[in-house]
Write a structure and sequence with these properties.
Blueprint lengths: L14 H14 L12 H8 L3 H13 L3 E4 L3 E4 L4 E5 L5 H6 L5 E12 L2 H7 L6 E11 L2 E11 L6 H8 L2 H7 L6 E11 L2 H7 L6 E10 L5 E10 L3 E5 L2
Parallel strand pairs: 3-10
Antiparallel strand pairs: 1-2, 4-5, 5-6, 6-9, 7-8, 8-9
Helix pairs in contact: 1-3, 2-3, 6-7
Length: 244
């Protein structure tokens, strides 16, 4: 594991908080699996070039978040990292992540304008061959990838949508800037599959890792479909919660 001494300094964020963020990302990405002991205070102090009191503050932060616990005779043990992902009429990635004291982010991977095939046209209530925006995006919590999604949007209704998303990293904000003030989830189907090489690379997971796959349709306040999406979640980083 490489030293983070150089990257921990310089932007005004407390050292203990930056150490906690590094460890939080490592726990979420599987570097420190659930049930295993993370390095001792002295080992972490040496790794990050800080004193043990600073490390202790970082570990206390992780303990308050429920990620680790101290066990007599074993040290500090990873207890869990799963993020609850509620699916209901109002499903908003940024809100879901923020409500669990984690920092959401989104990044545009690729975008293009294509013709809707039979399935996409049916999902968006369009005619086959109508133009749709196809967008690949990666979304993360505390910098750790949670899902990669392929989404389609009716192109004619949303001029400038891709640029708005690239700027904000938020579907909700990009839709709002295109005149869609709100939207709701009409349906979600959940399946599972194994990660292919491309998804595994983007999600910082191993090829063949289990993924939860959600296929969903969002509609505007008039009930017109505005987004059809297929999202792939790393199965051991989220727990799908169906809200009624």
């Amino acid at each position: 594991m490489t030293s983070e001494k150089s990257v921990l300094r310089g932007d005004g964020v407390a050292l203990w908080r930056r150490i906690a963020d590094v460890l939080r990302q490592e726990i979420a990405s599987g570097v420190h699996p659930k049930g295993e002991r993370i390095p001792s205070e002295s080992e972490l102090a040496s790794r990050f070039g800080v004193n043990r009191h600073t490390v202790r503050q970082a570990l206390s932060s992780l303990s308050r978040d429920g990620l680790v616990k101290a066990e007599q005779g074993r040290g500090t043990i990873v207890t869990g990292t799963t993020l609850d992902y509620p699916i209901g009429p109002r499903t908003r990635f940024s809100e879901i992540v923020s409500d669990q004291a984690r920092s959401p982010s989104g990044r545009l991977i690729a975008a293009s304008e294509v013709e809707a095939d039979v399935d996409i046209a049916a999902a968006l209530d369009l005619a086959r061959g109508e133009r749709v925006l196809r967008m690949e995006s990666l979304r993360a919590a505390d910098g750790v990838p949670l899902n990669i999604a392929t989404s389609w949007f009716p192109a004619q209704r949303l001029p400038g949508f891709v640029a708005h998303y690239a700027e904000t990293g938020s579907i909700t904000q990009a839709l709002r800037q295109c005149g869609v003030a709100d939207y709701s989830r009409r349906e979600t189907r959940v399946t599972a599959r194994l990660a292919d090489t491309q998804d595994a690379l983007a999600l910082m997971a191993e090829p063949g890792a289990p993924l939860l796959v959600t296929e969903s349709v969002n509609v505007d306040p008039d009930g017109r479909p505005i987004q059809y999406s297929i999202a792939r979640f790393v199965a051991d980083r989220v727990q799908i919660v169906v809200k009624s």
